[in-house]
């Protein structure tokens, strides 16, 4: 495993990390979650991604239980959470980044995780109804209190990120360090184009999610939705619609032969492709079984195989 700095910060994150979105509390029980985290850790993963809203808080509880039972040295791993959607329906409890919600949300997440701090905290989406100043001050105070070490955003526009950074700069507050955007072979414009200046101007780090486009880039959905896949889970019908989008499926079919020639799976090639981008600090992977974790980690050996010629073939297949 290689480790990259999270943007311009001094924090080093494993190139591949492990996330709990969709799987924890939906596809996995406590035991499987713990086994997957252990397999990731054995492969050198040091960053474990979570969010308050995942499985309505259950994901944090499961991860916290796993961390207690695994008993790793706290300084050796990184845990994140994210805030915006909330767990309740009150006017200050959902779809907001106001100070009241954020200050209560961090305490709730820490209680579920069983930790005294999270390393990374994200604004899970932008909130047009709350002044950015209010959100920036709240995250600054979380860091000052020791409950959070670094803060950032997820799926914010470049303009919104820059506005938050400039407010922090002007008032000598803790600045946003990282963004968590979707990034994969089928979804790449924001990371490669919109954020281009931010890497240079403010040293933005990225913890990218959905490197396999919710499973499309494994190739397993080329003929429909398998009964044991996440897209078949009740309540995730919206995911199935996204996965079965015809244009994406057509591109996947063109990518399969390239992966076969490299002697790897399409998933491994897709993960390796994400890692070729120097502006990607870490690629968040997901798995519902320890064997999947091990297979994903094999993508590290594929990165050197992605020569300029191979990259060009991949570009042509996804154009």
Tell me what you see in this structure.
This protein is α/β, with parallel strands linked by helices and 319 residues long. The protein has a single domain, classed as Alpha-Beta Barrel (TIM Barrel), CATH 3.20.20.100. The chain is 42% helix and 13% strand. It has twelve helices and ten strands. The longest helix is centred in the C-terminal third of the chain and has 17 residues.
Mean pLDDT score, rounded? 94
The CATH architecture: Alpha-Beta Barrel
- Tell me the number of structural domains: 1
Q: How many strands?
A: 10
CATH homologous superfamily identity: NADP-dependent oxidoreductase domain
> Any low-confidence stretches, pLDDT <50, length ≥5?
none
Helix percent reads 40-55%
Please give a quick description of this structure:
This protein has 319 residues and is of the alpha/beta class. It contains twelve helices and ten strands. The chain has one domain: NADP-dependent oxidoreductase domain (TIM Barrel).
Summary tags:
319 residues; TIM Barrel; single chain; alpha/beta; 10 strands; 42% helix; two-stranded antiparallel ribbon; eight-stranded parallel β-barrel
Describe the secondary-structure layout:
Elements: E1 3-5, E2 12-14, E3 16-19, H1 30-42, E4 47-49, H2 58-70, E5 78-83, H3 99-113, E6 118-123, H4 132-144, E7 148-153, H5 158-171, E8 178-179, H6 189-194, H7 196-201, E9 205-208, H8 237-243, H9 246-262, H10 266-275, E10 282-285, H11 290-297, H12 308-318
Parallel strand pairs: 3-4, 3-10, 4-5, 5-6, 6-7, 7-8, 8-9, 9-10
Antiparallel strand pairs: 1-2
Helix pairs in contact: 1-2, 1-11, 2-3, 3-4, 4-5, 9-12
